[in-house]
Amino acid sequence: MKKVTLVLSDGTRFHGKSFGYEKPVAGEVVFNTAMMGYPESLTDPSYAGQILTFTFPLVGNYGVPPFTLEANKLPSFMESDKIYVAAMICADYSEEYSHWNAVESLSDWLKREHVPGITGVDTRELTKVLREHGVMMGKILFDDDEEVPEADYEGVNFVDKVSCKEIIRYNEGAGKKVVLVDCGVKANIIRCLIERGVEVVRVPWNYDYTGMDFDGLFLGNGPGDPDMCQEAVDVIKKQMSMSRKPICGICMGNQLLSKAAGATIYKLKYGHRSHNQPVRLVGTDKCYITSQNHGYAVDGKTLGSEWSELFVNMNDGSNEGIRHKTNPWFTSQFHPEACSGPVDTMFMFDKFIEELNA
Predict the structure, then answer these.
(1) Nearest CA to 330 among 357, 304, 313, 311?
(2) 276 carries a ligand binding annotation
(3) Tens digits of per-residue pLDDT, 186-209?
(4) What PANTHER family does the record tag this protein with (predicted)?
(5) Is the pTM of this model over 0.90?
(6) 300 annotated to a ligand binding site
């Protein structure tokens, strides 16, 4: 294994060994505290432009499943068609893997998709640095004297990079028709809608769907800063001014609908990326354990008078969803469909379908 160095923007260095593709890269360094789910995380478009650190010490022990497509053309075991992280970091990479569904090692997968992987890093210390300082830019270098271009995260429209470029239809001819705004949507969100018997029309993030014939609007997840997606916000505002049709949003979808509702967005110090974020349903004592992946949050205090918070985070009090007080418009900042995490909040999809049929 070739020696490799992670250099953070404050000059801090972490040394390890390469087990993935060997190329220098730069990106925003973030951490995820989940104990499992690296195939899902690595293929989540919301990680575009980021170097992902896994805090769970052992990674790779159950290998990588095959990339196969279902009849609906969605990947069976991944969240998209490729790895989206810029690179990944772990403390201990398992060279041997064992799983009934594995067809290759994590190392082989990373190399095939040209994504660097680093092992042997003190991820506990790296996570402490990121928690104290906040997420920061970093470079992965295979030679301390080697230079790679600086990478930007803030101010870059990553949604435009990962969104589909043309309309894609799923489950054509089914009952109700749902327009899904693709900001970098995970495959399981589409699957959860299809399983509930609706036709899904997936459109690019800035597409004007207001003239289309549909029954409900679904705003998907995606990477980066929602303030870069004003075109999508303008279309949402237009739709809300024209119709009371149900609207549901997840993650980036929560932030875009909130912006359309007049709210402002701020960047979290180190984000929420894990399988164990507790959120409370506002006005009740009900608390749910959720999966999350976002670096920005909605300032709930800036919502318009016709809106209120639907969920709040029990760790830091940040917003986890909004609702309109009279119209069937609601969101979650967390991922109710997270395949490798808790599914306590899958009812969000059921509620959306109920509103479609109301």
Answers:
(1) 311
(2) no
(3) 999 999 999 999 999 999 999 999
(4) CARBAMOYL-PHOSPHATE SYNTHASE SMALL CHAIN, MULTIFUNCTIONAL TRYPTOPHAN BIOSYNTHESIS PROTEIN-RELATED
(5) yes
(6) no
